[in-house]
Specification:
It is a single chain. By secondary structure, this protein is of the alpha+beta class. Helix content is 55%, strand content 10%. The chain has 15 helices and 5 strands. It is elongated.
């Protein structure tokens, strides 16, 4: 029954909405890019590393479908009588983070940098509606009054954008769920509902475990740096971060060295058989890194290069044989040449082997 009213033309309503939207879509795309730029600048300023920050203007077909949704109160009328005014996700930004704690940091940033019109936790909503799912936090925001006075943002004053914030596991769930047709626990088969519920719980546990691992890793890094500073090397396992702390203290810091180089060198030490920094220190502490560098290169090389020369002098043939490059002829020739130069300069060549005795021998000519 429609009480004498003619049926509403939803198709025409959809077509008119899309036509109107296409005329202004570029504006909403520009707005989305502006919001993304603000978010990225804030993340960079606070040194928060995220997986991605994406921006988009709503797809016209998606806008049309949303514009033609019937009203809950009257199925013969559209939910959005004036779609361009009522639909709030025409400009969208999605922030995907690695860990749950970063959701809190993003929440603070958005509260400080935008006027937040609405904040909704989709996960909490699902629980209230007794639906399965594992989703994200959505924000409706406007450019802050402070920023809207800037020329680059002035034209966006009062415009609303939607910002979605989720962990990478929440994002994986959402992408898969997008293709799943069951939307209500009232119609989903019991067995499938049980499996979805279990899966959502597993993802939540995984998110918490990843967060716990990150927290523990941070704690161990701080502890290792403190122990290196105090000289308690027997308790410090070899990791790239711990190795950097040790070398910065022993050989002086070097801002030219990349994280990759510390990672590679830590792996090399483990390949040699070192387990703690105490073993490393026992191996190399009798050698003058600056002197070794000048013997080989005629000047003072970078931190890692000097350290590797110390290892070569202390381990001798053990260094050459256990090195990752030991199968490469050029490497063997070069290292033997270095050992000869050390020997000629009066350097005592060692035969240190991690886990064994730090034996020392005077090397003869190595052809």
């Amino acid at each position: 029954m429609n009480d004498g009213q003619s049926n509403f033309d939803f198709k025409r309503h959809e077509q008119e909405a899309v036509t109107s939207y296409l005329k202004v879509r570029d504006f909403y795309r520009d707005f989305a890019l502006a919001v993304r730029r603000i978010v990225e600048e804030c993340l960079r300023h606070r040194s928060i590393k995220v997986h991605s920050v994406d921006a988009r203007a709503k797809d016209p077909n998606s806008f049309g479908r949303k514009a033609s949704i019937p009203s809950d109160a009257d199925s013969n009328r559209p939910k959005y009588e004036t779609p361009l005014d009522q639909i709030t996700d025409l400009s969208g930004v999605r922030v995907i983070v690695y860990f749950p704690n970063e959701l809190v940091e993003i929440d603070k940033i958005l509260a400080e940098e935008f006027d937040v019109v609405e904040r909704s936790d989709k996960g909490e909503a699902l629980i209230e509606e007794d639906r399965f799912g594992y989703q994200s936090v959505h924000y409706l925001v406007k450019i802050s009054h402070r920023r809207s006075s800037f020329a680059e943002y002035e034209r966006f004053g009062g415009t609303i954008a939607e910002i979605q914030v989720r962990t990478i596991l929440q994002h994986a769930w959402a992408e898969i769920e997008h293709d799943i047709q069951y939307k209500s626990s009232a119609v989903i088969p019991t067995e499938i509902h049980r499996r979805f519920t279990a899966l959502a719980g597993l993802l939540e546990i995984a998110d918490r475990e990843f967060q716990g691992i990150q927290d523990e890793d941070r704690k161990l890094r701080v502890s290792a740096r403190s122990k290196v500073s105090e000289g308690q090397l027997s308790e410090v396992e070899i990791t790239p971060d711990a190795l950097k702390a040790y070398l910065d203290k022993a050989l002086g810091s070097d801002g030219r060295i990349s994280e990759w180089q510390y990672d590679w060198t830590a792996k090399l030490l483990r390949r040699f058989g070192f387990k703690t920094l105490e073993e490393v220190d026992l191996c190399v502490n009798a050698y003058d890194d600056d002197r070794l560098s000048r013997i080989i290169w005629g000047n003072r090389q970078g931190q890692i290069e000097r350290f590797e020369l110390m290892l070569l002098a202390a381990m001798g043939e053990n260094y050459v044989k256990r090195h990752s490059y030991n199968k490469l002829p050029w490497f063997e020739r070069r290292e033997h040449r270095f050992l000869n130069l050390f020997s000629e300069a009066g350097i005592v060549i060692g035969s240190y082997s991690p886990g064994g005795s730090p034996g020392v021998e005077i090397a003869g000519s190595l052809e």
